[in-house]
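Ticket #4471: complex job returned nothing on first submit. Input attached below:
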Amino acid sequence: MNIRPNRSAWRLGAVVAVIGLVAAACGGSSSNSTNSTTANTSGTNTASAPGITATTITIGSHQPLTGPAAPGYSEIAPASNALFKYVNAHGGVDGRSINYIYEDDGYNPANTATVVRKLVLQDNVFAIFNGLGTPTHQAVLSFLQTEKVPDLFVASGCDCWDNPTQDPETFGFQTDYTIEGKVLASYEQAHYKGEKVGYLFQNDDFGQGGVKGFDQEIPSSDVVSRQSYDATAAGLANGLGNQVSAIKAAGAKVVMLDTIPVATALTLLAAAEIGYNPVWIVSSVGGDPPTLSGLLSSISKGKAGASLENGVISASYLPSFSDTANPWIALFKSIHDQYDASEPWDGNTVYGMAVAYTFVQTMKAAGRNPTRADVLKALETDGGSFTGPGLVPFGYSTSHHNGYVGEQMGVVENGAFNMSGPVYRTTDSSGTPVTTYSGTQPAPPTSF
Amino acid sequence: MLSAGFLRRPLVRHLVIAVVLVVVLFLVTGILSSYNNFQIALIASYVIAVAGLSLLTGLNGQISLGHGAFMAVGAYTTALLETHQHWPLALVLALSAVTAAAAGLVTGLGAARLRGPYLAGATLALAVGLPELTIKFTSTLGGESGLPVNPPPPVSFLGASFDPNRYLAWVSILCVAVTLVLLANLVTSRFGRDFRAVRDDEIAASLSGIRVAGNQVLAFVVSAACAGLGGAIYALATGIVNPAGFTLVLSIAILTGTVIGGLGTLAGAVWGGILLVYLPRWSESLSNGFKLNKVVSSNLSLGLYGVVLIVVILAFPAGLQGGVRQAGRALRSRFMSGPGSSGSTGAAAPAGVSTPVASGGGGETS
Amino acid sequence: MVYAAMAMALVLIWRATRVVNFAQGAMAMFSTYVAVSVIDRGGDYWEALVVALAFGFVAGAVVERVLVRPVESKPPLNAVIVTLGLLILVESAAAMIWGDSVRSYPARFSQTGLKLGSQRVALSPFDLYIIGAVLVVMAGLVILFRATSLGLRMRASAFEPEVARLLGVRVGRMLTLGWALAAVVGSLGGILVAPKVFLDPNNMDDVLVYAFTAAIVGGLDSPVGALVGGVGMGLSLSYVGGYLGYSLETVGAFVILIVVLMVRPEGLFTTTTPRRV
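Support reply: We reran it on our side without changes. The output follows.
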């Protein structure tokens, strides 16, 4: 009987040792080359920061390339990369080409924690760029502050990225869900004042943030039904018929949707089934026309085409992908056709290119040989006045790190999103009214 | 000079070996990069959880698809106590295991009535349902966005510039060692024998005086405590607890690690933990080698992961540890006359053991 | 109903092979994509259905022969891991072949609710078609297992392979047939639900989780139980959602599952007495 314990103890030891050996074998390249960080504004390129050499800027990201969040969102990083390739082919940023490493996290925060540590500790990226998702990115938020890695343009509309005192490295990009909620709701108040309103929202930071915005503008006496659904598990597999029926029963004439595209489509489908035709006002998240019409076109066996989503009111902070007369869209489309042709052309593509353009803009503003701190400073001082593909300004300043501060209204028609409504801007705080914005979009630069 | 008999007592033996190896590993962490140390912590969290499930499923015959939920219990306990109450780390880790054990007790009481796929179904419900409760109690548990977890600050005598990932690796290696030593002693004890008896034949076990239900509940409690400790380290390593991190996917990963590593073996748990961390990275770098469109290559890497799971289980029905054991046996019979083992850490191969009795897949413990 | 179809496929595999197939949903998803391809090439709904079911049949048989057969004599968890590996493999393959964007799937009949008086109710001709199809399949399965010698041989192969073999049943062939049939039922389920939940490489996972719990509630040995469990699951989801708020929908459904299992440890419709010690 003495033999077994001996053997097992030995094996126990041997395998514990294996952990170390495997880790050692996979290690190695951890030369944390922190080079001189003195600001250099002369004409020669130096390796001014981790991830920046005389000829390259290396940045990283975590993206859902597989898994439940991949549909649609997996197009964003390739689109960003296409714009970077275009910029690189046209001389790069101050002669440096951008090397964009985006890792798949499958929208799982544990994977995000792993891949971002790999990017920062092993690949020595200069910054994390456009990391996608609220729960995923929150998994690395404090890590990026500790490591002092710029965390630029998080791909999520959570208002949690705007916290400069606690998270000085982090900057948002898109209009946050609360501002968007206020914008949609003030449009509702301007056009359907006094009508009964129903809400249908995703039960997470996205939906709740939007509802927070709705409630700042719409009197609570007008809201007759508040329905939600659960996106974390199989909340959608059962359809949204019950929620839609409840809103109909409450007599709502206007329905505000904070829903992802699939849920928007399920909502429209459920409403059609019970013959319910309210005014639909949908978050930009769930109003992407190609996705919607793709999902809904075959419902009526192609005959009526995309009829179900026609007339849906939505909003956007970027020009519509279908607005080919817009010079930015024309530029992005040509870049897409040249560098990203295997991916679809839709709102996600425009988003990926717009955020990539903003990064290029930021690096240019940060000087020829920027340190990590220079980049943060450039965004805080100049970011608020950046213009580009966006329809509204950014909120970047020393006291705020939020991205776009408003949206333009539009309506879905035959698979296109026609933006002709007013452009609104506001802030998260309930005291700030929603005002119209009259700034104009500049033409894209002719050279990069 | 200690007597040979004293050294041969299981507890002492396990302890001595564990201490030697922990010291070696502590030294190894110094030459590794910060990222590798982080990976060690992640591996450790999986190893502990997998070891717990291996005990439950391999030794006691109860399947659980819900260990991710117990990890969540441990992780949330850590988040609440470590970050918000600033309690000492050792106490936090212990309490995380205790709360998870309590959850395991409740589950085990119910599970003792269930068998096979029905038990799988009930634990699956746990895996899916429990993380969702965090959304219901948003004010305390942080809802969808969860709670941040501060990495444990290295103890002060190490100095302010000590790499927190290296410290975390130390903590987690220590936890793995403690857990494995305790489990190794448990499985060689009377309880371990009872666990196996219940797994093999419940009726025979009860006839020989084992309280079957109580035994099954005990296995669930121990197993859940391990998962809770694993979850606590997982939380410390990833720096966040939120429901998206503790989905069914995690529970299934733990089960996969358990079976692929070698069901019912503690060594297998180590293989399982390493595999869960490194296999996705290996398959990713492999598929990146094909220079495909990134989305296709990501899916290819996922597909390779699936292929590896299938191939390993077809090639080594008793898991990787079974494969290692086979290989070891083949080597030993080939070099019968040579020295039994390389002289690492003074653990010479036990004399006279040529073919250990390893009948019944997954039955052997080590 | 959505869950009922998938639950029945699980029950079928369980009865025929004693394996819970975690890749069931993924295989159904893959067959549905095959049907989409047929439709994209100009095929109509019925052609697509037939092609997808035929594909499902062959795929089910191949999976059993190539992947499951080698682990059949091994501990049952090995088969579970194989089906998990298959799940990952099939989903990634579908994403590689068809891309990962969410697709719609045409419904054969109108999805506009029927008129009851002046009100439209949430029951469309397409819903009736789904219900009819599921009932027909369930009836077919009950007849197969209860009233035909083929069904008897399949059950015998699954429960007592040694005895069955002695009695001259070709056990291997029966197991293959069981997987093939289950894949057909699963594929049908996928095509039936696709117009309602859309189609992407991952979304059948969620359906499968519910279907599995439905099958468990009903009792894994009973097609009728699968139907009742599936319908009950759908209804209870609605009621929990309606009364307690939709954020508790999933939690509520699983609480119901656990309560059922506490009262009936082997499901509502299993006739064998639970083994007690």
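Confidence is low (pLDDT under 50) at residues 1-40, 300-306 of chain A. Closing as resolved unless it happens again.
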